[in-house]
Amino acid sequence: MSATIIEVADLDVYYGTSQILFGVGLSVRQGETMALLGRNGAGKSTTMKAIMGLAPPRRGRISLRGAVISGQKPHHIARAGLGFVPEDRQIFPEHTVEDNLVIGRKKGPEGQDEWPIRRIYDVFPLLEPLRHRIAGRLSGGEQQMLAIARTLMGNPALLLLDEPSEGLAPIIVQRIGELLRQLRQLGATVLIAEQNMHFCLGLVSHATVIDKGQIVYAAGIDELKANDAIRRRYLAL
Ligand SMILES: Nc1ncnc2c1ncn2[C@@H]1O[C@H](COP(=O)(O)OP(=O)(O)OP(=O)(O)O)[C@@H](O)[C@H]1O
């Protein structure tokens, strides 16, 4: 069995006095693509932010390849090997596509340099002809691709994507899905927070379902596909 990349255990997260996460736990192994599924407001983004140190947990532990990272500052966590694409993508809108990519370039925590710009353009062929375009003028789908590509330039051990399909036209969602399937084939380890289960089918290997800040189900994606009761109860499908 491959090594565990990230292990999240017993996380409690609060915003002010409101408790948002209740004992959240999940783990992702090397080469897995895991979906964190749940309805609007279930706690997906908060889980991602907690992992990145942006919503520090009041209780619980997060380890990256066995080393505890909870309690560290977000930039330390990023340097330790986590690459986060937030819901709002956070590209630099006034810079060109290529500048955005170059800004994201850094070696991985063990000196890996697996994503030189040439390889990025091979995997993201739509970005190459746009390289001199101002990022803020790209379409939503192009910006999402750029945000993923830029994060890969940092050679993360784990790529965290917060709702990559949100707000995009179905054809673009399909393209992003194909891209993520390709990353999976290349061996990337990915955690995707999504409301859109259909987007994740055929893309992820495992699924964890969150509801009202608690993990209510975790299994291989085929098991979830076969489990009508869970899908109806927590994913409204
Ligand atoms: N900054 C904040 N302050 C207070 N409450 C917040 C804050 N951000 C989120 N919440 C609340 O925390 C809960 C979980 O939100 P979260 O964004 O993690 O859900 P989500 O599953 O990612 O949903 P979405 O699809 O809407 O992003 C919601 O009830 C939300 O209203």
TrEMBL record:
Coiled-coil positions = none
Give an example GO molecular function: ATP binding
Which Gene3D superfamilies does the entry mention?
A: P-loop containing nucleotide triphosphate hydrolases
Q: Which CDD domains match?
A: ABC_TM1139_LivF_branched
The record's section on InterPro entries has:
AAA+_ATPase, ABC_transporter-like_ATP-bd, ABC_transporter-like_CS, BCAA_Transport_ATP-bd_LivF, P-loop_NTPase
* Superkingdom per UniProt: Bacteria
Question: Per the record's keyword annotation, is Transport included, yes or no?
Answer: yes
Q: Which Pfam families match?
A: ABC_tran (PF00005)
Known role: Involved in beta-(1-->2)glucan export. Transmembrane domains (TMD) form a pore in the inner membrane and the ATP-binding domain (NBD) is responsible for energy generation.
PROSITE patterns per the record? Answer: ABC_TRANSPORTER_1, ABC_TRANSPORTER_2
Chain ranges of the ABC transporter domain: 6-237
Could you tell me which PANTHER family the record lists for this protein?
A: ABC TRANSPORTER ATP-BINDING PROTEIN, HIGH-AFFINITY BRANCHED-CHAIN AMINO ACID TRANSPORT ATP-BINDING PROTEIN LIVF
- The name under which this protein is listed is Branched-chain amino acid transport system ATP-binding protein
What keywords would UniProt list here? Amino-acid transport, ATP-binding, Nucleotide-binding, Transport
| Family of the protein in this entry | Belongs to the ABC transporter superfamily.
